[in-house]
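Re: beginner question about structure tokens

> Can someone show what the tokenized structure looks like for a real chain? I only ever see the sequence side.

Sure, here's an example I had lying around. Input first:
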Amino acid sequence: MPHTIVYNSELRIIELKHRGTITLDEIKEVALKVARIAEEQDCFLSLGDYREATVILSTMDIYDLPKIISDTLALAGLPAHKFKRAIIPPKISEDFYFFETVTLNRGQNTKLFQDVEEAKKWLFEE
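And the corresponding structure tokens:
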């Protein structure tokens, strides 16, 4: 999966850009990289851009994903509820709404957007 993960020091956010096909294993790998950057930079805001990606996950994978992310962050000593994640999917589908709902139900702060500027605006809201 081609992806880039950078810390934007000007905005103080972690920016993720995904292209191609994304699997559960690749999401775990990305979550670990985000955890490392978050710890190094003391930053808990992230913007994930999936507009050029195809996500290949089953309903059970989507259901388990918030726990997987939480467990991965916990390995770095970071609580998942501390993060605020804006996600821009290729299109907002039932699968992405399901992920957003499951994530919120598990005490994590994630929201879907279609516009990058709206996503950034939300990230900085108190």
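Each token stands for a local structural state, so reading them left to right follows the chain. Helices lie at 24-41, 59-75, 94-105, 116-123.
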